[in-house]
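Model: You mentioned two targets. I'll fold them one after the other.
Researcher: Yes, keep them separate.
Model: Target one:
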Amino acid sequence: MNLVSLTMLVILLVFGVVGLCMARKIRNGDSFYVMEEKAPTLFLVCGICMSYISAVTMSSGPGVCYENGPFLLLTTAQPGAWFGMLVAILFIGRKMKAIGCYTMPDYFAKRFSDNNVTCLALIIMVTVMEIYGIGQLVSIGTVLSEATGFSYGWIILIFTLAIMFFCVPGGTWGIMMTDTLMFVVVLVTAFVVCPVVIYNLYPEAVQRLPEAFWSVQGIHDMSTGYRISQTILWFTFFAGSPVIITRVFPAKNDFAVFKATVISVALIALISFLLYFTAGLMQGVEPGIVPQERVIFQAVRNHAPLILGLIGVAGILTAAISTASVLFCLAGFSISRDLHGLLNQKKTEDLNDLKRARIAQVFAIGIGGAVAYLQPTNSFDLSIFACGIFAASWLPTILMGLLWRRYNSTAAFYGMLSGALTLTILQVLMAVQEFSLPWNINPYIFSMVVSILVSVTITLRKPADPEDARRHYQIRNAQLSDAVIRETRTVPNALPRLFRGYYQAKRVMVGGVISVAGLLLLLCILFYSFIPAG
């Protein structure tokens, strides 16, 4: 057993014990699903950041930067993803929390009151969450199988069991607590280990790479149209991501959501830059890393002191397993809550509710681990496909449901179905034969356009239903800020508390904007300082 495998086992054991201990926090379904809506700003920041900093950010994303150069991704996909997160949290997530959603399919049930729509949303939710989680496990197995001495199959088995300890006993409590501790490891990896690696690689790595490698077009000179399409694509990926949206549901109040959002996006921007710049430098020192997903792993192991290198390895582990645990947890929630709600219209709160929720967690995680064991494809393909399904089917339906009074359940059903089927068919055609859309139209954007056109056409052709308008009015007028005022009135010194929360949130938001502006300035300075003149 080497140091990497020992680090892996210790990390999983510690966090597994933490997840197990969270079982004592669970008293009822509210505490299992949404922590009784008591999550403070710290938990939300760590949860949002760890949802973003997944195996894609630690492995697949750096692999793309290693091949094409870091600034292509940093100036296209990343800004789109950051703005998508703002929409997901501040617009969609807050609205869903305001109407009492515990899971994403809850929104479809409340907005459309149609079992067919809810059932389709549930099928998409569970299926795609499983696919996405499988992608995370595949990435873990790919990166660690050689370094630890364990076979790929053993890695998958160990991590599947660890995720069960995170999710099954404590539900959202276990996820939030382990995410908070894991984020400390990721912060050290990004802000301590990566700068050390960059210092050790510079300037040798820069001198060995062509100037085009550091351009915003990348080494392959991508066109402006391609870069704009990537920005739009990643915006839609994150704006419709259940992993991001559902992080709002356990929030203590609206102030905590606003503060957490600004802090999270600022931290994510900094972490992404450090990781991707490190990956780009590695091309100049260690060209030919296969698979490219191992680039950050190779960087921290070969170009940082031993202790820092092991911390970096721990950061990669925690990023991947955190996202995988959230994905499987959400799939389990939908099975135990939404599927049971469809099958049993008499919803009663009893001891069996928690038992059913935990059994669903075991089932969702077990299925994901079993499929990941077969190593179906690389993690990036699975993750992108999963995000694309939500962008093509859910995002148009959610936004039109929130913004359009006349939008009805029939349009929602066929809009979601057409978007998901179109993307799936296109992906299959591209996988089995040489196929591309005319003018190189992106299949994800094309599928989303199909979903929108189908939804709009059906809505306009079907007579307006007063019930759809009534439900839309109720959701539109539900404000999360109203809950803050109601709760504040029940405590002593209500008005000073309210103003204190407001001014604190305002200071955090202003500070976050200044931090992001400073980051952009830093990027410009580093771009012109590190890159040699042609």
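Model: Target two:
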Amino acid sequence: MGIDPGRLDGPIVGVASTWTGTMPCNANQRELADRVSDGVAAAGGVALGFNTIAVSDNQSQATPGMRASLISREVIADSIELMVHAHDFDALVCLVGCDKTVPAALMALARVDKPAVVLYSGPMRAGRLRGREISIQDVWEAVGAEERGLIPRAELDELERFACPGAGACAGHFTANTMAVALDCLGLTVLGDGLIPADELEAKGDAAARAGTVATTLAATSRTFLDRRALLNAMAGIAATGGSTNGILHLLAIAREAGVPLTLDELAEIGARTPVLASLAPSGRYMAEDLHRAGGTAVVIGELIRGGMFDGGAPTVTGRTLAEAIHDAPEPDGKVVFSVAQPFKATGALHALRGNLAPDGSLVKVSGSVRRRQRGPARVFDSEEACTAAVRAGVVREDDVLVVRYEGPAGGPGMREMLSVTASVVGAGLGESVALVTDGRFSGATRGLMVGHVAPEAARGGPLAIVRDGDPIVIDIDAGTLTLELEAEEIEARLAAWRSPALPYDRGVFARYRLLVGSASEGAVLREH
């Protein structure tokens, strides 16, 4: 392998890359892995690289392939854990990018508890078309508009060509960039390095070398940065930037792997009370590169500390506390990042809802909608495809509450994102009049009154399984409730009569996942017993 035996007395550092040639999200990671190795060598260590799989959420969106996305989180975590145990690395650097690679790496580090640094490989630049910034969100919403005849196909095709101009994760503050902010708040990365755009080759390469050097000399192990304080800080950062509901799902999973008691309600309570401080797409104006240009996560952390919503005494991999690390951060610019005193949105964006339709909880992000309450008749669909077809056919009406079930962790299996449905609703001009309730989940690019993660899920006999067309459903954000307006006796009778339908996949990884996966309300992690 060309390694000088005299160097083997130094630290052996595993370099876990999540590169694949199937997507732009992680396209720069081979080069970054080389720079990490340079940093390891400079600090007296030996770098040994390896790779994991990764699944593109956007390229699998609205297809059966999306079922692989959340499942891949477990496979990535397992592969990193296995490599650490097999090769007994002294430390790790994990290069992460697209949605599931960030939480997967953190889950693996929680299991193995080695010194480690995680480097996010960076956001994509926004696309630019006719003087405005665009992203993949615009493409998905244009698909819905084109299918309703609201825009010509040529306009959609043009949008596709310009929306994703290069390497990096989706440009908006969708799930991947949400988790990059969480990384900063956890202290497991060098603050500010993650949000350097993927195409800033020199700066990103320097960040990779820095990660390698820090990991080689780091004494503190991963769980130091994955305790309860750190996870609550990460939730505050997610909430303050208007981040994705997937952030809560992943923090619950990380907590479970780290042995940290943490509940859906505790995270959602932070999500509800924390004001939104950043105007980031999909609920605001700006992209991840703009957040970086405005000072990055450090500016947000500074405001949260000032407002008493963040524990600045938490450590970072550089040895400084987070309060020390953000000491030189600029003040909020009032465009991309706002102050706690004058926030972008005074009310929190992420809420848990409970009720007879979601006894174990559900999640809603309201920063993409002005509505706080909706009552309407259920329109029930047993798959994402059936619901999308109905929206695109124009048969969905104002005030409808779309119910998409059997798309949960076990039912899907894999808890697909419903971006094709939600984007079609918005593209059809129904974004402020139609709501959606599902045991699936949503892309970080979703906007509108969309309730996901309903638990228990339909495939495991949750009340969502017995909803019928026309049943009245009430979504009430302020009351924190999701209610099926039927008498308790009627609900009990329907549940007693319910039988599980035939579900796809009876063998292989999908079937194994269905048997082992737990509830979304607990992070959809695999059960060990």
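Researcher: Noted. Anything on target two?
Model: The radius of gyration is 22 Å.
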